[in-house]
Write a structure and sequence with these properties.
alpha/beta; 6-stranded mixed sheet; 26 strands; globular
Length: about 450
C-alpha cells in the first residue's frame, strides 16, 4: 500500500488543475490527529475520524465519525472519488450530531441526501458519476482509489461552511498478496496468490463484454485464501480485438495452466463469471474438464453475440429481436426483452447437462441486461432433467446486473458494446448494495466448501 498520499492523489487525478470538483486543497490546514488526516477550521474544533485510519481494502467497511460538533448540530457529509480516467463520483447525506456533540455513522441515521436511514457505508456505495452512463472500474489494482470526505455545516450540500475534511484510501491488493502477470502460450492473464506458499483452491475470474483485463475482483478474492487468475478473453495485448467466435481451446489452456501451478490445489478449479463471463463459465463447465465448481453472476444459458466453438462443435448466438427494445422514461434503451428465448432458439442453449460442475447462480431480479433469473432456472431444469445435481440459485430483489464486490456503486445505465450505446442495467442502490455484501460472502463459502472441502463462516463485517 506504499505510495505516498500525494502520489496517490496525483495518480487518481485529485491534484490535476482544471478538473471540475468540489473545493479542494484550499481553506484550513491539514492536521494529523491520532493517525488520521483531518482538517481543522479556525471557527470549529470539529474533526473527522476514520477507522481504520490508514485505509483499508475496498471490500472492507470504514467507520466514519465526526467529533467536536455542537450538540444536535445539523451537518452534511460528502464523499467523492475520481477514477483513473478522471471521472468524478460523489454522494452526500444530511445528519444531526447527538447530544454529546458527536456523529457516528454506525449509530446515526442519514436524514436524506443520496440515501436515508442507518447506512454506515452509504457514502461509498451511493456514489454516482457526474458523467452520464459511466461505470466505475479499477484498472490498476496496485494503486488505491482515494475517497475525499468532507463535513459541512448545515444541510445544504453545496453551500455549507467546511468544518472538516479527510482522505480515505481504499486498496485492492490485500497485505501480502502477490501479483503475477501471465503470458504463457496463448494465455493472457494475471494470477493473484495469497502470501503463504499454499497450495490454495484455484479460481479463474471472468468479466463481461468490453474485454480487456480487469483484476480488482481477483486481487480482493486472493486475500480470502484463493489463488485467483483474472483471465482476459479479448481486446487485450495480442488477443483478438473483438468477439466474433469464442474458441474454448483458449480457456482450456488457461484452466490447465492454473491446475499445473504448484500453488494451486487440485484436482479441479473454480470459475467465477459475471455477465458474458457467466455465459462463458457455463460453456467452459459444459465442454472442458477440470472444473469442479462455478459461480455464475447474472449469466446467460444462451450464447449471446458471437459463436462459441469447441473442436468441431459450434453453438450459434441466440436471435436478437430489435423490435422488442424499449425506451425508459429517461430515454435509455431497455433491452431485457430483446433476446429470443433459448427454448425457441434451441441450438443456442449451452449444453449444461454435459457438466459435472457444482453451480451457484447469483441473480439480480431487476437485471435489465437480460433475463438472468429465467436463465438460471432453465439451467437448473436442464441439469435436473439429466440426473445432475440441482444448483443453488440465490435471487436478490431489486438488484441490477453488475453485482460487484461490497460497497461498489451501482451501475444503473452504461454503454453496451453490442447495442452501440447506453442501456438500462436496473437495480435500486440500497438493495443492490445489500446484494453485493451477501453475494461476496456466499461465493467465498461456496468455493471453500467445493474446492477446499472446508465449511467456513464469513463474519458479518467483512
Amino acid at each position: 500500500m506504499g505510495a505516498s498520499s500525494l502520489a496517490v492523489l496525483r495518480a487518481c487525478g485529485l491534484c490535476r488543475p482544471g478538473l471540475k470538483n468540489w473545493p479542494r486543497l484550499t481553506g484550513p490546514p491539514l492536521l494529523r490527529l491520532g493517525g488520521c488526516r483531518t482538517w481543522a477550521s479556525a471557527k470549529t474544533t470539529a474533526t473527522l475520524s476514520l477507522e481504520p485510519a490508514g485505509g483499508c481494502c475496498w471490500d472492507q467497511p470504514v467507520r466514519i465519525a465526526v467529533r467536536g460538533l455542537a450538540p444536535e448540530q445539523p451537518v452534511t457529509l460528502r464523499a467523492s472519488l475520481r477514477d483513473e480516467k478522471g471521472a468524478l463520483f460523489r454522494a452526500h447525506a444530511r445528519y444531526r450530531a447527538d447530544a454529546g456533540s458527536e456523529l457516528d455513522l454506525e449509530r446515526a441515521p442519514a436524514l436524506g441526501g443520496s440515501f436515508a436511514g442507518l447506512e454506515p457505508m452509504g457514502l461509498i456505495w451511493a456514489m454516482e458519476p457526474d458523467k452520464p452512463y459511466w461505470r466505475l472500474l479499477k484498472r490498476d489494482v496496485q494503486t488505491p482509489f482515494v475517497v475525499e470526505l468532507e463535513v459541512l455545516d448545515g444541510h445544504e450540500p453545496d453551500s455549507g461552511r467546511l468544518l472538516a475534511r479527510a482522505l480515505h484510501e481504499r486498496h485492492f491488493m490485500p497485505p501480502g498478496v502477490r501479483r503475477v502477470p501471465v503470458r504463457e502460450g496463448r494465455v493472457r492473464a494475471t494470477l493473484f496468490l495469497p502470501p503463504e506458499p499454499g497450495p490454495y483452491p484455484g479460481i479463474v475470474d471472468l468479466f463481461g463484454l468490453g474485454g480487456g483485463l480487469l483484476e480488482y475482483r481477483a486481487s480482493l478474492l486472493a486475500g480470502k485464501g484463493f489463488a485467483v487468475m483474472a483471465l482476459a478473453c479479448y481486446n487485450h495485448d495480442d488477443l483478438p480485438q473483438s468477439l466474433e467466435t469464442t474458441h474454448l481451446e483458449y480457456f482450456e489452456e488457461a484452466v490447465n495452466y492454473l491446475l499445473h501451478r504448484p500453488e494451486v490445489k487440485g484436482p479441479g478449479i473454480g470459475l467465477l463469471g459475471i455477465s458474458k463471463g457467466g455465459e462463458l463459465s457455463l460453456a467452459m463447465s459444459s465442454f472442458l474438464k477440470g472444473i469442479t465448481a462455478a459461480v455464475i453472476i447474472n449469466g446467460s444459458v444462451a450464447v449471446v453475440g458471437a459463436n462459441i466453438r469447441y473442436k468441431d462443435e459450434t453453438l450459434p448466438p441466440v436471435t436478437v429481436m430489435r423490435d422488442r427494445v424499449k425506451m425508459t422514461k429517461d430515454g435509455i434503451k431497455d433491452v431485457v426483452e430483446a433476446l429470443k428465448s433459448p427454448l425457441e432458439d434451441g441450438k443456442s442453449f449451452i449444453p449444461v447437462e454435459r457438466s459435472n460442475t457444482t453451480f451457484l447462480f447469483l441473480v439480480g431480479q431487476d437485471d435489465h441486461n437480460w433475463k438472468s433469473e429465467f436463465y438460471a432456472n432453465e439451467a437448473s431444469k436442464r441439469l435436473q432433467a439429466h440426473g445432475k445435481e440441482k444448483p443453488q440459485i440465490i435471487c436478490y430483489p431489486e438488484a441490477g446486473h453488475y453485482i460487484e464486490p461490497p460497497y461498489w456503486p451501482l451501475c444503473r445505465a452504461a454503454h453496451h458494446v453490442l447495442v452501440g450505446g447506453p442501456i438500462f442495467y436496473g437495480g435500486e442502490p440500497r438493495a443492490h448494495a445489500m446484494a453485493q455484501l451477501d453475494a461476496w460472502k456466499r461465493l467465498q463459502i461456496f468455493f471453500h466448501k467445493h474446492l477446499d472441502g472446508v465449511e467456513v463462516t464469513i463474519p458479518t463485517k467483512l
